[in-house]
Amino acid sequence: MGVPKFYRWISERYPCLSQVVEENSVPEFDNLYLDMNGIIHNCTHIDDADVCFRIPENEMFDGICRYIEFLFAIVRPKKVFFMAVDGVAPRAKMNQQRARRFRSAKDAEIALKKAVDAGAKISTENRFDSNCITPGTEFMDRLHSRLQYFTALKITTDPTWQGIKIYLSGHNCPGEGEHKIMDFIRCERSRSDYDPNTRHCLYGLDADLIMLGLCSHEPYFALLREEIIFGGFKKEKSLKFDVDAIKFHLLHISLLREYISWEFQSVKNKLSFPFDIESIIDDWVLMSFLVGNDFIPHLPGVHIHENALPLLYKTYISVLPELDGYMNENGILNLSRFEKFLKHFAKNDRKCFIEKLDDELYLASKRNVNEVSLDEIFFLFSKIGWTLSVNRAFKDHKRNYYFDKMHYENISKEELQAQAEGYVKAIQWNLHYYYHGCCSWSWYYPHHYAPYISDVTNFSNFEINFDKNEPFLPFQQLLGVLPKSSAELLPFPFQELMLQPDSPISDFFPENFSTDLNGKKNDWEAVVLIPFIDESRLLSAVNAKMPLLDDEEKLRNSHGPHLLFVENIDMNDFHISFEKVKFGLLKGIKWDFSYRGFPTLQHIPHSAQLEDAGVQVFNFPSRTPSMILKILPRADFEKDISEIVNDLIGKEVYFRWPFLTRGLVHEIWTSDYKLITIFQIELNNENTLLPDPLVEFQLLDRIITVKKVLSIPVGSTGTIIGIPLVKKVEVIFDNYFLGGKNIRLMLRTSCLDHEVSSSYCSATTNPVKNFSANVDSEHRIEASTSATAKNFDYGKVQIKCAPSRQSLNRNNSHLISENAHKNIYEKKKKIECDDPHYSSFDKRGNFQNKFNWSFSPSARNSPYNSRHIGEFRSSQSFQPLNSSEQRINDPSNERDSYFMKYSYNPGSSEFCNNVLPSLRNGMDFASKNVYSPTAAQYGRPPSYLFHNTSSIKSDPIAYQNQVFHSIFL
Asked: Where is the Xrn1 helical domain (predicted)?
């Protein structure tokens, strides 16, 4: 669970952190990590509120595998794919797991009683017990086997899963999923051949993944997660995950690093030691622990919803110049500096206490606590029967807190000191866990509540030590975290320990318990008041029953390895010694190079300032300040509108800063005019058509309404630039002989989603008369041509293009090039490309798509007349089909079949030597098409969507069913 409400808070504080995942917008990642338990929970108990809802186990497993497949297809990692299922957790985490499982069992019991009382028909089939998603259960053992089979099957049958390292760290390997992933990253970073520019993507739902991403000090790190809808959301009772139905977000840790730099920029010139953003980030992580997480409770009065984090940052900015360094030194707590920081922050304790008084004192304190006179305070106290000073009343309040919460009848100084040292030890255990790995499997924070921050003092000389020991075995953890209602998940000998009244540990499993909101607002945030496990008693009871287990149960009660398909990795191989861990940024990071898809704020000069702007990141405007980025004035935009038009219209640009989405300026709006591109087509002396772009000024006769703007306009907006999003640009180019003439044919698409895209052809002989493109919903591509060698006159060329529905990021609007049979087979021409908009190649230059083309000799004059029929398949090769496949699409014996799909790099010599001269030397166009001259001007393939007659009758530049994006000048 991590830190409740943290994700929403940070998204509203830093509004540009997250990017909605769209087609072709996912960066290239080297490594993909899945924190699997979020997937498992989402695919197994979709609707806990419906006690009648049931899902067969095989459907659960199918859903989990589909989800994995889907996430892999979105990210398409180049080097490593790591799936991590939660194994046995440290004792510190077990306390939280125990509370959560007892609470869920109680909620299920209440829901069932309500349903019965309401007369609902309850199925006789046992309801799915989500507590079975715990290491060591039969359910997890079956799921582990299914995941192994699924992974082996994908590696064998799916080329996109080949050529990378695939790891599966199952429930039998100790450690939480996300921390096993961090162990792996630390291990990889320690290697001499590690690439410091490795690009990481971590899927998971827990907010603490944000801290883990920062702790890694990897500059290219992003978190992938489903969209969270606040304000009410009901899950669909279906395991069929539709690409269009699930919206994903990428939270970029690289942007968060830059936001944190802005957050503390004011302290940069006030320090007596170097300002180091990596150390600032480490201290930022430390401060985040003070609002609580899975291992320690939050401090009294320190709540995210009560602005605790901004108060921590404000304190840090004021205190850091007084220190001689940073508090968090690579996961080791500097006690003296941390004590000085807490001493300043403790002033908030007294303020928080005063704010909880009656309304009058609360309003007085809100004016300013320091401005409230002592007489006024005594007067207000007398009104409610108090005669004590504020300080004395505060001490009494804390004494009552320790009595009510921790059962100290009259807490002494020694007991307060023990509380302080215990809390500081908890902070240090957390830091070690996040930066180095688990330093003690048995340590846990032994209280349900934390002390007041003003009592966490005098610890600078405290020695912190932890017992190094081994993790629990699976059945030991099950007995430590499961309630009595889930006893069936354990082997029968251990069920007796939970159910029998005379069990030596029967007191570990109370059926009734209370909860305490303790300053929180939601029931799910309440403290669950159940007793902590006595480890020695638990292990003694378990050991007495161990001989009664059968062989299969003994196997389930053991630890296993990480699985690397093809070999096994010992579970301790990723745990490296402290001396080998490499902290901070590694040498060799390319700061002057922007990796494709990884955003940065540095592309545009800007400033940043916290403002109450009401940013609506989710369903409602933020009620807290947000870091507002303001673009600084730019000389290149302080121009006359005609100059802006000449500079931008018809040109490729990047917009949606800081995510830099590729687009083409289609039109420019001012308060008086709409400016669009039109094209004048003339016939030159060489009998070829040359486009000449003009700009048309149209007087506006309607009001423009811009919806879903990605930024907040501050002040008036003078100019709006309409930019259609370029989803994909592909060109296939080839030479061949037809009737003794050299024909150069180029087919090209630039498409938006499933939008129709026409193309153009260039030739040194007669032009193609007609060319059309249509979207086929059946995922098939068909092309047919007819040509007569006598007059070189092509007939109609038809292409039906259908995007593949197998993955979100595969926009397969494919192109077909008319090639001679001999040229395709003998030359096997393949030109690799390295353009982000070519979805048909992966990073290594391998094909992501394979087509089966049929070529047939004809009785007509030209030996190269043909009819092509292709269907989508996956492949990584360019080769002839074997004999058994040659007639897949044609039952006759007259055709041979080959694979063909290639393209080129726009910056390659192939483009410069062949394609660009063709563009500049003359163009032949179908009479019904419009052309954009971007390529001829900039040496790149056109990034514009062409139109046929039906779409240009009313408006020559109208797009059908198109969404325009806007930027502001």
From this structure: 275-360, 397-569
Which pLDDT does position 142 carry in this prediction? Answer: 96
Domain count, the chain: 2
In 5-56, alpha helices (H)? 6-13, 36-44
- What's the pLDDT tens digit per position in 405-429? 988 888 899 999 999 999 999 999 9
Question: Token pair 């050299």 is at which residue?
Answer: 742
Does some domain include residue 347? yes
Model pLDDT for residues 78-114, shown as the tens digit of each residue? 999 999 999 999 999 999 899 989 988 888 888 787 8
Q: What is the 3-state secondary structure (H, E, C) of 733-775?
A: EEEEEECCEEEEEEEEEEECCCCCCECCECCCCCCCCEEEEEE
pTM above 0.90, yes or no: no
Q: Are 281 and 219 in contact (CB under 8 A)?
A: no
Distances (CA, A) of 470 to 236, 441, 452, 539, 755: 41, 6, 33, 13, 59
Distance CA 664, CA 650 (A): 6
Q: Over the range 79-93, which residues count as b (16 or more CB within 10 Å of their CB) and which as e?
A: bbbbbbbbbbbbbbb
Long-range contacts of 738-744 (CB under 8 A, 24+ apart): 738/787, 738/789, 738/792, 738/820, 738/862, 738/864, 739/789, 739/790, 739/792, 739/861, 739/862, 741/765, 741/792, 743/792, 744/918
Q: Which residue has the higher pLDDT, 485 or 872?
A: 485
Residue 949 in any domain: the answer is: yes
- Is the predicted pLDDT of residue 226 greater than 80, yes or no? yes
Residue 893 lies in a domain: yes
pLDDT tens column, 643-693:
776 777 667 777 777 777 767 666 666 655 555 544 333 333 343 333 334
Q: Are 826 and 759 in contact (CB under 8 A)?
A: no
**Which of 452, 471, 490 corresponds to the end of one domain?**
471
Which of 471, 495, 522 delimits the end of a domain?
471
Nearest to 447 by CA among 529, 522, 534, 342: 529
Residue 356 in any domain: the answer is yes
Query: Of 97, 78, 77, whose CA–CA distance to 86 is shortest?
Result: 97
Structure confidence by residue, pLDDT tens digits, 123-141 = 767 788 889 999 999 999 9
Residue 930 belongs to what domain range? Answer: 728-955
Rounded (10°) CA dihedral 190, 194, 197, 200: -70
How far are the Cα atoms of 142, 475, 556, 897, 929 from residue 138, in angstroms, in the given order?
Answer: 6, 11, 8, 50, 64
Closest CA to 25 of 907, 665, 810: 810
